[in-house]
Each structure stands twice: as structure tokens, then as C-alpha cells.
Amino acid sequence: MWYENYLTEEILTNLIISIGIFLLFLLFRKIFTKYIYRLLIKISRKTPTELLSNFMFAFEKPISWMIVLFGIYISIKYFPYIDDRTMVIKLLRVATIILVTWGIYNFTSTTSAIFKKINEKTNFQVDQILIPFLSKAIRFIVIAISITIIAQEFHYDVTGFVAGLGLGGLAFAFAAKDAIANIFGGFIIITEKPFSIGDWIQTPSVEGTVEDISFRSTRVRTFAQALVTVPNSTLANETITNWSKMGKRRIQFNLGLTYDTPREKLKKTIERIEHLLKSHKDIHQETIFVTFDQYNESSLDIFLYFFTKTTVWGEYLKIKEEINFRILEILEEEGVSMAFPSRTLYVSNDGEKEISYQARSNES
Q1: Would you give the DSSP letter of residue 335?
Q2: For residues 220 and 230, is the Cβ–Cβ distance under 8 A?
Q3: What digits encode the pLDDT tens for the residues 69-106?
Q4: Is the pLDDT of residue 22 over 90?
Q5: How far is CA 290 from CA 47, 167, 277, 325, 335, in A?
Q6: Are residues 235 and 253 in the same domain?
Q7: Alpha helix locations (H) across 128-176?
Q8: Domain of 301?
């Protein structure tokens, strides 16, 4: 009887100790994450490089849960109702692997920042479109290694699995041919570099700004702010126009003057417009054409062909507007008028007189 009471008291004592240890670790976790870890993050921000602070942010939640796991590991030593602790410890190891993978996965999202830093401080240049692709590749490798380690924890034959993949590789290739085509399309885009992240591109299927490229697809933000996801295999086989690679932006139009414009005024107008363009700081000076082009049906046409130095759409429109206003000033100062579509009709009245007038073509 006394022996049974002793066992009951011992079980109750161990149960209380086990629960107490677990609650103590929960309390320590709250204090650690709220005060100690935040202090460490503040200290890491003062370091010359962002690498340490990125690491601290990436492992903030995993470390918090690791404290809980450690508390469980200590408390189960006293927990009286677990006979076989081997499986529990194995599950704790698997959970630890998952938490470490979680932290590394979060940290690899900062790989882009790391590569940008490398670009700034060394001669090792990484194209902007390659950076997110490498980041995703590293994440994939981290997850694959984690799954392999977890499988080995349960004594699963990983080499047999790989061999099985080799036997079923042909069937898998047929089943996933579209996915494989997209992956190869991604490699083609990266190696040939027809565009980079942030470039304005135009293809038969989409036009907009490139936001991201993954193993399967490329995301393009249209000017209507819609996000279009294009498979890499489709994009790799299309004609791609990269408007961001323009060194200058073209302006071309015809300026029609009325037929009653005197030759000297026409010539002076052309000279003044040409001087305007050649003296404008935002106009590219390599190619400027201002010529008396042709006799149109209702106008004397001046052909203007030139380029702005900027390729930014908003700046381009502002320069074009400024040039148009300056041309209007020149026309007003020279006393010449722009022509509108017109027709001249000659009406004969018994052969005695002819009456002529001009009328707008849309009113005729």
C-alpha cells in the first residue's frame, strides 16, 4: 500500500516538475523575444553591414519556437506518461530541422540585397534579372536538403528514391513537359538578357514593366496596373521589344502651312524652328531634320524629325509640349497660319465670271 502511494506521489511530482519546466520556458520565450532579442536586433542595425540584421530578422520566429522545443525536450524527461521517448525526441529533431530551414528560407529572401551589395563593392556583376532567380534557386535547394535530412531521420532510403526517379524519368518528363519548357525558357531569358527587372517591354502577348521572373513565368505590370503572368516558354519564343533600352526617343510630325504663305516667310519659319531644336538642351543634337517636305492637297508641309534625350514617358511628353508651344510662338511672330483641310471650287456662270471660295472639307 505504501509502495503504491509512493509511486503516485512520485508520478504527481514528476508531472508537476514537467509542466513547471514547460511553463518556465514559455515565460522565458516571452521575455527573450520581447526584450533580449529586440535588443540584439537594435545592436545588429548599428553594424556596418546589413547582413547581421537580416539574419536576426530571418531567425526571429524560428528561435522563438526553438525555445519552446527545448522546453519540451527538458520537460519530457520528467513527464511520467511517456514510456518510449525515442519517437518524441525524433519528432523534436524533425521540428528543429524545420525551424532551421524556416530561418534559412527567410534569410535567403535577403539574397537579393546581398547580390546588390556585391555589385556595388566588387567587379562581380550580377544582372538584375538573375538576382531573384538565384534567390529562388537557393530557396529550392534549402528545402530539398531539408526534406532529404528529414527523410533520413525516418531511415528512408533517399538513394533508392533518386534511382526510382531515374527509372520513371521519361514518364515524368512527358507529364511535366510544359513545366520543363518554362524552366528552359527562364534560362534562355536569363542568359540572353533581352530585358531586366524594371524594364518596359512589349511583346505580342503583353506590354508593361517587368516585375519578377521565376522558374515558371515572368510577371509584367501593365500600364493599366494589371499584373500579367506570362509563361517563360511563351516569352522566350516571342519577339521582345525593350523600350527601356532606347538611348533617345523620337518625335516626328508634319506641320502644314497655308498656300498663301510667302516663300521668304516659309523659309524663315523653317530656319527658326531648326534653330529652336538645335539650341534646346533636351533635344538630341545628332539627328535633327526640319525641311519643306511636300505640296499637300491643302497645305505646304514642313517635315520635322528629331529625338529627345530622355526616354522617360512623362519627361518626353513635357518636352514635346514645350516644343509645340514654341513652334506656335514662331508661327505667330512670323505671321503665318497653319492650314486645315480645304477645297477650292470654281463656279462658272455663263462663262462671264468665276467665283472661288474655300470650305472645310468636313463641311463641303
Answers
A1: T
A2: yes
A3: 888 888 887 776 766 667 777 888 888 888 888 888 88
A4: no
A5: 59, 71, 9, 17, 19
A6: no
A7: 130-153, 158-167, 169-175
A8: 249-337
Beta-sheet strand order (sheet of 227-231): 227-231, 217-221, 207-213, 200-202, 241-242
Please check whether residue 356 lies inside any domain of the structure. Answer: no
The number of folded domains in the chain is 3
Tell me whether residue 65 is exposed, middle or buried, using C-beta atoms within 10 angstroms of its C-beta: 0 to 12, 13 to 18, 19 or more.
Answer: middle
DSSP-derived 3-state class of residue 221: strand
The reply to whether 110 and 23 lie within a common domain is yes
Longest dimension (CA), the chain: 147
Please check whether residues 145 and 193 belong to one and the same domain.
Answer: no
CATH number of the domain at 330, please: 3.30.70.100
Domain-located, residue 112? yes
CA 150 from centroid of its chain's CA atoms: 34
* Cβ atoms within 10 Å, residue 299: 20
Tell whether 22 and 143 lie within a shared domain. yes
User: Which pTM does this prediction carry?
Assistant: 0.47
Q: Whole-angstrom Cα distance, residue 62 to residue 106?
A: 10
Query: Does 147 share its domain with 6?
Result: yes
- Which is nearest to 68 in space by CA: 13, 23, 127? 23
